[in-house]
Amino acid sequence: MKRIQLEIFLGILTILATSALILYYGITEPERMAANAAAAQARQIEVGAALYEAQCSRCHGVQGQGIPGLCPPLNDRYFFDNRLKDVGWSGALEDYIVATASSGRLASTRPQLYPGQGNPAMPSFSDQYGGPLRPDQIRSIATFIMNWSETATLVEVPSLPAGPTVGVEITKELPTGDVANGEALATSLACTACHILAPTGPAWLASDSQPGIGARAAERLQDPAYTGKATTPEQYLFEAVVDPNVYVVAGYAANIMPGAYGSQLTDQDMADIIAYLLSLK
Amino acid sequence: MIKSLNFQDMRKKFSQALDARVRAITAGLGITELGAIMRGDPPTEKPNPRYKVHTTSFLFHIRPRYYELGSTIFTHTFRLGFLTTFFFFIEVFTGLILMIYYTPSPEKAYTSIVNLMTNVPFGAFFRDLHRLGAEGMVIFTTLHMLRTFLTGSYKKERSFTWLTGLALLGITLFLSFSGYLLPWDQLAYWAVTIGTSMAEAAPLFGNEVNLLLRGSPDIAANGLLRFYLLHVVLLPLLAILIISIHYYKVSREHGISQPATFTEEGNATSEKKKWAKTRVDFLPDLFTSEIFWTSLGLFLLVLAITVLGYRAPLENVANPQVTPLDTKAPWYFWWLQGMLKLGDKTLMGIILPTVLVVLLIAVPYIDRNPYRSLYRRPLAVGLGILSVGALIVLSYMGLPEYGIKQDPATRTVQDLIPMEGPGPVYEIPFDQLQNGAYVVNESPTADMCLNLDFGCPALEEVFTSYSEKINGYIEAGELPEDTTATMVIEDWQLDLKKVTLRITWVDAENQNKEYSREAFIHADRGSE
Asked: Cis ω on the peptide bond leading into residue B284 (within 30° of 0)?
């Protein structure tokens, strides 16, 4: 066989083989595109998860469980099923999340339960409105939040006490507190959502470097930098719960802790919490 | 009536008319002649119609009538110049298709690539082909230059062709580099940031050059648009112009060089020389050969994508605020990064490379040795081999692993969960990511998943390698004895897990140190 004929023969063979490969690729292309689409969605959820943890978890909870007295839960059946109806939003939930996260909330829609962290209730997160995130990053966060839609359960809203509340006057006489009930309250009021020092547990327990909050409260009263009105460790803790901005421990920022606990706790609740905290030396 | 119909006459007229049509299309080759070409028979008409097409047809006019037999020997050229052109055409064709779906703006660029891969049939295929073709073009252009150097084909009348070839190498590198930015992912953004920051080192006008390229101090919308226009308009037009000049010189002026063995005195008998000068006609021999190489090249490219699974990389969307660790320039600029590690940025990044380019341009004028045979120019060949060796060593030195002292904890974590791109933790199948907190030197490294009936060999492998790395650093004294290294795997959401690597230790100054990184891993992420 001459070289030219060999080339024609092999050329025809490779062209046929190439066509067969392209045909095979074309037949499997819809599945490949679907897999690519799923992968793109998955990457967006991964990116959103990291951004949520960095930007949103401090207020809305690491697992989206919300913090009563601060921010609403997002990993919540109500949020996925009824929230849009209640606010009268006509678009999709994902767009509602993008819109809210982008522009923030000037005023809370549920000030009694979730007043947010002051004015505005929620800051804007889009860099178009002075926030830190690009639009595609906010979209990723929304995709991550939407991924809770299948598994979310109803988060129970803690009910406000019906009777009189403790108020913000720290010299008030309180009944005798119960340590066990105080510990239960500290957990159920979601204090640990913020006051946490992983992996050793809530920040008020004793750790290697410092004693428990009961001993710390007594020490802080003696600190010349102390600016509050309390004269006893009991009053110090009382004040720290109902009026947290009077004195902020060095190294922490002001205006982070909700200031509404005075109107959410009864006298007995307050006494129990104080008793529990004081027991931690 | 019937008598007046002459079928033979009609058939003749019909075939004449058909032949005339065919000749109009093929610029003078009749049906019989085409058949003869296919069979490899001699020409059927006189004068030879296979030469006549070179004057009647534009496309054949720009091709030569013949090559000399000596220059068609495969081991002389390896068809490298032809294959480089082949890759250029692949790039033009796939590039035009990609252009339809691409939007050159930071907001849209990445999404348009994702859309291409998820919504456009064969979209990912053409992207892979374009990327693979780009790598091929860089490799084959370089090899083509190396071959020209080694066979001494840059001498005398070919010195200008050598210069245009160098210009084409430069254009190829910049074409590839400018295309690098367009997907607007982390890989693209930071590789191009590094690349353009080299321009900044230029004396006097470095800052201006950098600004002109990037459109602003950092790469943003303006920079992307500039790179896009460079990539799809200016550089391709320049490439077409200079390829035309380069090719014209080769095909019309001096032809492809003969191997030195046939031309240089003492090497070859006059018979051999005469044989080497035998003409090989373009039609049909060279033309068939070119079609054969084209179909073989296409086959290999398609094979690489469809069967061998070549995928053009795509990382997360570009984030100017986060520089991933181990960021590096495209591989063909690693040697430059390696040089930058050796000394001053201006000297190593600008002055020395410029001197190198000037030297390359001047090679035909510096090298006065009249011989082309490898054995008769030991100095040039030695220098050539030395330069290739130096390029490889410098490229290795350009890698982030070389010469940069890294904190052992950071290195360990980065090796297992890199900030961008593939890594061992990401390769663990999702169902093997068993929840738990695993502590190096405390948790077992075998039989980690007794509850999974399929076990978790991939997780065990990663945890073992984690333990080995940490223990290696402890033995080398770079981490203290009581270093705690943990790997925590948690359920995070539906089909989403969180993997945390945390290393804590007490340093020489008795300070508590910690390095940790979290990765979220989704079941559908797909392997990289």
From this structure: yes
Kindly write down the DSSP assignment for every residue of B221-278, as one continuous string.
HHHHHHHHHIIIIIHHHHHHHHHHHHHHIIIIII-SPPPHHHHSTTTS-HHHHHHHT-
- CB nearest B291 (choices: A11, A32, A35): A11
Task: For residues A272 and A275, give the distance between their C-alpha atoms in angstroms, rounded to a whole number.
Answer: 5
Q: Is A118 on the interface with B (CB under 8 A)?
A: no
Q: Which amino acid is at B24?
A: A
- Return the pLDDT at A199: 47
Q: What is the pLDDT of residues A185-241, one digit of tens each?
A: 877 776 766 676 544 456 777 766 678 888 888 888 888 888 888 888 888 988 888
Gyration radius of chain A's alpha carbons: 28
Return mean pLDDT, chain B: 90
Residue-level pLDDT at A169: 82
- Could you give the CA distance from residue B90 to residue B93 in angstroms, rounded to a whole number? 5
What is the Cα–Cα distance from B59 to B482, expressed in whole angstroms? 75
With H, G, I as helix, E, B as strand and everything else as coil, classify residue B516: strand
B421 Ramachandran zone, left/alpha/beta (phi>0; psi -120 to 50): left
Q: Of B506, B462, B463, B499, which is closest to residue B484 (Cα–Cα)?
A: B506
**B507, B407 contact by CB (below 8 A):** no
- Cβ of A33 within 8 Å of Cβ of B124? The answer is yes
Nearest CA in chain B to A30: B121
- What's chain A's average pLDDT? 86
CB-based contact A45 B496, cutoff 8 Å? yes
Q: What is the pLDDT of residues B458-490, one digit of tens each?
A: 999 999 999 999 999 999 888 898 888 999 998
What integer pLDDT is reported at residue B267 of this predicted model? 65
Tell me which residue of A30, A66, A201, A150 sits closest to B496, measured CA to CA.
Answer: A150
Going by their DSSP bridges, the two strands B279-281 and B436-439 should be labelled as: unpaired
**Which residues on neighbouring strands pair with residue B436, listed in sequence order?**
B489
Q: How many C-beta neighbours within 10 Å does residue A179 have?
A: 16
Choose among B43, B29, B79, B30: nearest CA to B281: B43
Give the separation between CA B140 and CA B119, rounded to whole angstroms: 33
Q: Is A35 on the interface with B (CB under 8 A)?
A: yes
Determine the distance in angstroms separating the CA of A74 from the nearest CA of chain B, rounded to an integer: 13
pTM of this prediction?
0.85
Put simply, the answer to whether B306 touches A135 (Cβ < 8 Å) is: no
Per residue in B165-176, is it b (16+ CB within 10 Å) or e — as a string?
Answer: bbbbbebbbbbb
What one-letter code names the amino acid at A176?
A: T
Tens digit of each residue's pLDDT (9 = 90 or more) over B202-212 = 788 888 888 98
Kindly report the backbone phi and psi dihedral angles of residue A258, in degrees, each rounded to the nearest multiple of 5, phi listed first. -60, 145
Looking at residue A112, the DSSP 8-state letter turns out to be T
The reported pLDDT for the residue numbered A200 is: 47
Residue A11: which H helix or E strand, with range? helix A3-55
Least confident of A18-22, A57-61, B95-99: A57-61
- Asked if pLDDT for residue B300 goes beyond 90, the answer is yes
Task: Band the pLDDT of B416: cuts 50, 70, 90.
Answer: very high
Closest listed residue to residue B281, CA positions, set B52, B32, B80: B52
Name the burial class of residue B16, with classes exposed (0-12), middle (13-18) and buried (19+) by CB atoms within 10 angstroms of its CB.
Answer: exposed
Convert B116-168 into a string of H (helix), E (strand) and C (coil). HHHHCCCHHHHHHHHHHHHHHHHHHHHHHHHHHHHCCCCCHHHHHHHHHHHHH
pLDDT of A112 higher than 80: no
What residues form DSSP beta bridges with B496? B493, B522
When CB atoms are compared, the residue of B285, B494, B523 closest to A151 is: B494
Distance from CA of A70 to the nearest CA of B (A): 23
What whole-number distance in Å separates Cα of residue B347 and Cα of residue B198? 11
